[in-house]
Write a structure and sequence with these properties.
alpha/beta; three-stranded antiparallel sheet; nine-stranded mixed sheet; globular; Dihydrofolate Reductase, subunit A; 167 residues; 4 helices
Length: 167
């Protein structure tokens, strides 16, 4: 099984402000949709509530983290802690791809389980209150595909791939 973080970050590894994405880039949204469709996506309750209509993503197996034991949402599974999540992982086929989709607390908690990270790196520093761990400064990670520079209006960005170093 492959567990992969997927996220758009700014120059300072910021990912959000007041529960919203920092910027919406159509090709990034398309990459996310095409990459995760048909696979397992994992995110927190607040991230779910930020989606259109607060509904789970279509054509994916949705797993939502919530500390609220009574929390249920149609078309998604709820887990309340990392142990419950690991039990769900045990049920998945060996070739399954599991995408960690945020928010900040979920990334921090689940990044140690990830073997790769798909980073849309935006060449701009936005105001942010939520951050992804800086993989450039983490010796456990290496940039294996720096991507090509792309632009959306005046926003420059790259689709990058980081891999966890083999120990």
């Amino acid at each position: 099984m492959h567990i992969i973080a997927i996220v758009a970050v700014d120059k300072n590894w910021g990912i959000g402000l007041k529960g919203r994405l920092l910027v919406s880039i159509p090709d990034d949204m398309k990459f996310f949709r095409e990459t995760t469709t048909g696979h397992v996506v994992v995110y927190g309750r607040k991230t779910l509530e930020s989606f259109p209509g607060g509904r789970p993503l279509p054509n994916r197996r949705n797993i939502v983290f919530s500390r609220n034991i009574g929390y249920n949402v149609k078309d998604a599974e709820t887990v309340h802690n990392i142990e419950e999540f690991k039990n769900v992982l045990k049920e998945l086929p060996d070739d399954e791809e599991v995408y960690i989709c945020g928010g900040g607390a979920i990334y921090k908690e689940l990044l140690p389980l990830c073997d790769a990270a798909y980073i849309t790196k935006i060449d701009y520093a936005y105001e942010a209150d939520t951050y992804f761990p800086n993989l450039e400064k983490d010796p456990e990670w290496e940039l294996t595909d720096p991507g090509e520079e792309e632009t959306y209006f005046d926003i420059c960005y790259e689709f990058q791939v980081y891999q966890r170093r083999k120990s």
